[in-house]
C-alpha cells in the first residue's frame, strides 16, 4: 500500500457539500480514508442501506460490509485509481476518456434490514485525491515513453500496475464511495442467467435455484410452473422451505381458470384476490394453502384460438404466489414481462432437455416430432414399427429370500436389545406392567424367529416406537444397568434409518456391487453393439439386470448411410449372447474373489417376429409394446425367468448358466449356430442341456437350451 507516514496526511472533505448535498442524495455515499481504507463518514442513505449505525461506520472497511468484496478486491480496484493519479500528477499524462474510472462494480450486501442478499452497484471517485512521490529518484517509467502510449489501454494491463513502488507515494485528500441498490435489476439478470442454462427448469435443483431470485424479486412466498402436454397440466410448486412438489390436472379441468384467461390475452395477469376468483380445483387448492394473490405469466408459442389448441400453442405458465391479497402491482407486472422471453426459452429448452434422457438411437424421431409441434401441427404418437425385440436377464437367484433373511436378522437383533432394556428395568423394580411388556417382546421374538411377514419391516419397528421407546425416559431412572441397555439400543439404531440395519446394509452393499459390475459390463458391450447398428436399448437394474434391445429399420434415420439388414440383426443377436456370457463370467469371478454369497442365472428370450413400440407421454417409460399381436411376447417376458421344465419341474435357469428360450425350429437352428460360436470362442461349455417349458398362462410350446458359462477361457 502507500507509505504509512501518510496516515496523518490531509484527508479533508467539504463538510458543507456533504451536509447539504450528500445527505439529500438517494445514492449511498461514504468518505473513505485513502491510506487505511476505513470509512470516515457516510450519509443517511448509506446507513439505511447497510443497517449500520452512523457511529459504527467509522471503524469499518468496505470489505467488512460486502460479502463478496474482500480486501484484495478493494485493493486492486483502488490501485487502478492510484495509477491514474500517478500518471496525472507525477507524469502529467492524462486522458479524459479513461472509461474504467467510471465503470461500476457490483457487490453483495447482507445486512439486518433485509434477510436476503442485496446487490449494490458502486463507484469509487478519486478525483479529490492528490498524490506525490516521496523519493523523486525512483522512476518506475523511466524506460517508457508514456505520452506516445496514450492511444493504448495501458490502464487495463496489470503489468503497468506491477511497476509501481506503492510505498514511495504519499496521498492526500479523500476517496468517495457512491452506491446504489440495484437488487431488482440484478435479480432479473441472475434469474435470466439461470433460465438460459442447459439444465431443465423442471429438475429439482434448477427449480429451487430459480425460485430464490423470483421470490425475492416479487416478494412472493411461492413460485409455480405449469407444464402442459398431451391434455395434462403438470404443476410444480416451490417455496423457501419446500424444494419442489408436483401435481397433475386434466386440461379440461381448468376451464374458466384465470390461467387460461391469461393465455387467451397473452399478457401478464394479476389475480389480486384469489378468494374471489377460484373457479377450478387448481385455484381452490392454492387458496386452501393460504395463497392470497397470484401473478400469472403465460408462455405462448402461437396465437391461441381455443382450448383444443392449448397443448400445442401454450408452452406453460409461471406464477408467483403471495399469502396476501392485492400484493402485486404494476411494477411487478413490468418485471414479469421482462422475464417472459427467458421463461419461454427455458420452457422450450426443458422440452428439448428431455431428449438428453432419450436414447441416442431414437433421439432423431423425438426431435422430428418436436419440430412438427413447434409449427403448430397436431401431436402424433411416436411409434417404431416392426422392430425385433432381443430380451435378456441376469437374475440374482433367491434375492427375495436373502432380503427377507436380512430383515429377519435385523429385527431379531433390535428386539433383543429391546428385551434387554425391559429386563434391566424389571430387575431394578418389579412392576406388573413391565412384566407384560417383557412377555409381549418375547412373543414377538418367537414369532419373528419362525417367519417374517411382508409388513413386518415397517410394523415391527412401529411397535417398538409405540410400546418401548416412549418409555426410555422412565427406563433411565431404573439404575445403571437399564441406562446401559437403553444406550446400547440407541447406539444400535444410530444410523440414517433410525433402526438396526446391519444385515440389510450388508445385503444392499453386496447387491449394489454386483449390479454395478453387471451394468458396467453391459454398457461396455453396448458400446460395441451400437457400432454394428444403432438400436434402442432399455436397461432396468433391480436384483440383477434386465435388458431389451429393439432392432429394426424404423429406428434408423432415413438419411443414415447405415441401414438395417438381416446381417445386422444376426450380428446383434450373437453380440447379445456374448454380452450375457461376459456378465456371467463377471458374476462367477466376483463370487470367487470376494466371496459374494449370491448365485446369478442368465436367460435370453428369442422372438423372430417383430413388435411395434410406442412412446406414451403419460408414463415414465420411454417405450411400451403395442398391439394384441404383441401380448404373447409381453406375457412370456414377464414370467419366463420363473419357468420350469415340463418333465421334472426344475427351474429352466440355473446359476452360472446361460439359458436360451425359443419356440420354433428355425429359431433353434439360428441360435444353435451362435452357441457353436460361443464354444469356439471359449465362452461356454460344449454340453447343451435342453427341454420343454411348462405352459405359461395358456402359452405353450416354448423350449429351452442351456449351457455352462466358462469362468475362464481354456488354457
Automatic annotation (TrEMBL):
It comes from the Bacteria. InterPro entries: GAF-like_dom_sf. This is GAF domain-containing protein. It comes from Lusitaniella coriacea LEGE 07157.
Amino acid at each position: 500500500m502507500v507509505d504509512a507516514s501518510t496516515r496523518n496526511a490531509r484527508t479533508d472533505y467539504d463538510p458543507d457539500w456533504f451536509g447539504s448535498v450528500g445527505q439529500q442524495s438517494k445514492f449511498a455515499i461514504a468518505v473513505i480514508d485513502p491510506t487505511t481504507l476505513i470509512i470516515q463518514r457516510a450519509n443517511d442513505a448509506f446507513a439505511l442501506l447497510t443497517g449500520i449505525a452512523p457511529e459504527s461506520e467509522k471503524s469499518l472497511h468496505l470489505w467488512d460490509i460486502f460479502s463478496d468484496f474482500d480486501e484484495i478486491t478493494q485493493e486492486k480496484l483502488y490501485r487502478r485509481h492510484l495509477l491514474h493519479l500517478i500518471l496525472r500528477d507525477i507524469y502529467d499524462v492524462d486522458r479524459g476518456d479513461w472509461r474504467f474510472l467510471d465503470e461500476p462494480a457490483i457487490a453483495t450486501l447482507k445486512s439486518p434490514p433485509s434477510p436476503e442478499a442485496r446487490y449494490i452497484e458502486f463507484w469509487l471517485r478519486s478525483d479529490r485525491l492528490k498524490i506525490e512521490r516521496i523519493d523523486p529518484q525512483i522512476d518506475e517509467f523511466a524506460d517508457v515513453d508514456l505520452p506516445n502510449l496514450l492511444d493504448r489501454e495501458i490502464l487495463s494491463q496489470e503489468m503497468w500496475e506491477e511497476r509501481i513502488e506503492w510505498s514511495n507515494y504519499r496521498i492526500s485528500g479523500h476517496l468517495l464511495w457512491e452506491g446504489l441498490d440495484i437488487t431488482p435489476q440484478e435479480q432479473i439478470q441472475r434469474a435470466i442467467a439461470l433460465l438460459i442454462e442447459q439444465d431443465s427448469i423442471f429438475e429439482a435443483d434448477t427449480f429451487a435455484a430459480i425460485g430464490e431470485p423470483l421470490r425475492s424479486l416479487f416478494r412472493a412466498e411461492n413460485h409455480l410452473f405449469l407444464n402442459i402436454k398431451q391434455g395434462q397440466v403438470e404443476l410444480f410448486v416451490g417455496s423457501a422451505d419446500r424444494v419442489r412438489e408436483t401435481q397433475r390436472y386434466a386440461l379440461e379441468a381448468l376451464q374458466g381458470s384465470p390461467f387460461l384467461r391469461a393465455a387467451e390475452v397473452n399478457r401478464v395477469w394479476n389475480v389480486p384476490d384469489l378468494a374471489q376468483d377460484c373457479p377450478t380445483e387448481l385455484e381452490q387448492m392454492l387458496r386452501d394453502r393460504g395463497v392470497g394473490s397470484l401473478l400469472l405469466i403465460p408462455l405462448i408459442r402461437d396465437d391461441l384460438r381455443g382450448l383444443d389448441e392449448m397443448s400445442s400453442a401454450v408452452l406453460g405458465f409461471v406464477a408467483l404466489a403471495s399469502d396476501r391479497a392485492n400484493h402485486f402491482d404494476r411494477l411487478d407486472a413490468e418485471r414479469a414481462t421482462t422475464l417472459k422471453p427467458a421463461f419461454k426459452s427455458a420452457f422450450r429448452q426443458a422440452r428439448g432437455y428431455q431428449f438428453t434422457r432419450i436414447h441416442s438411437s431414437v433421439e432423431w424421431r423425438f426431435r422430428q416430432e418436436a419440430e412438427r409441434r413447434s409449427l403448430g401441427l397436431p401431436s402424433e404418437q411416436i411409434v417404431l414399427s416392426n422392430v425385433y425385440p432381443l430380451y435378456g436377464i441376469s437374475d440374482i437367484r433367491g434375492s427375495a429370500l436373502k432380503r427377507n433373511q436380512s430383515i429377519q436378522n435385523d429385527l431379531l437383533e433390535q428386539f433383543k436389545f429391546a428385551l434387554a432394556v425391559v429386563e434391566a428395568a424389571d430387575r431394578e423394580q418389579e412392576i406388573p406392567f413391565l412384566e407384560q411388556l417383557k412377555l409381549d417382546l418375547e412373543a414377538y421374538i418367537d414369532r419373528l424367529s419362525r417367519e417374517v411377514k411382508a409388513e413386518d419391516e415397517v410394523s415391527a419397528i412401529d411397535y417398538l416406537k409405540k410400546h418401548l421407546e416412549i418409555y426410555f425416559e422412565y427406563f433411565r431412572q431404573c439404575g445403571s444397568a437399564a441406562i446401559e441397555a437403553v444406550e446400547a439400543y440407541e447406539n444400535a439404531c444410530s444410523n440414517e434409518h433410525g433402526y438396526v440395519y446391519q444385515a440389510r446394509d450388508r445385503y444392499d452393499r453386496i447387491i449394489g456391487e454386483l449390479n454395478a459390475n453387471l451394468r458396467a459390463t453391459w454398457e461396455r458391450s453396448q458400446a460395441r453393439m451400437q457400432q454394428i447398428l444403432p438400436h434402442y436399448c432399455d436397461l432396468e437394474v433391480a436384483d440383477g439386470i434386465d435388458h431389451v434391445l429393439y432392432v429394426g429399420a424404423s429406428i434408423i434415420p432415413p438419411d443414415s448411410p447405415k441401414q438395417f439388414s438381416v446381417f445386422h440383426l444376426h450380428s446383434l443377436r450373437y453380440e447379445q449372447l456374448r454380452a450375457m456370457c461376459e456378465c456371467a463370467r463377471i458374476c462367477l469371478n466376483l463370487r470367487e474373489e470376494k466371496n459374494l454369497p449370491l448365485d446369478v442365472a442368465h436367460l435370453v428370450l428369442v422372438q423372430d417376429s417383430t413388435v411395434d413400440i410406442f412412446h406414451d407421454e403419460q408414463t415414465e417409460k420411454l417405450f411400451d409394446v403395442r398391439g394384441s399381436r404383441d401380448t404373447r411376447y409381453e406375457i412370456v417376458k414377464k414370467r419366463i425367468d420363473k419357468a420350469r421344465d415340463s418333465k421334472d419341474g426344475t427351474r429352466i435357469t440355473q446359476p452360472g448358466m446361460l439359458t436360451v428360450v425359443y419356440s420354433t425350429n428355425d429359431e433353434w437352428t439360428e441360435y444353435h449356430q451362435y452357441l457353436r460360436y460361443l464354444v469356439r470362442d471359449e465362452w461356454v461349455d460344449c454340453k447343451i442341456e435342453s427341454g420343454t417349458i411348462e405352459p405359461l398362462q395358456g402359452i405353450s410350446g416354448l423350449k429351452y437350451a442351456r449351457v455352462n458359462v466358462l469362468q475362464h477361457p481354456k488354457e
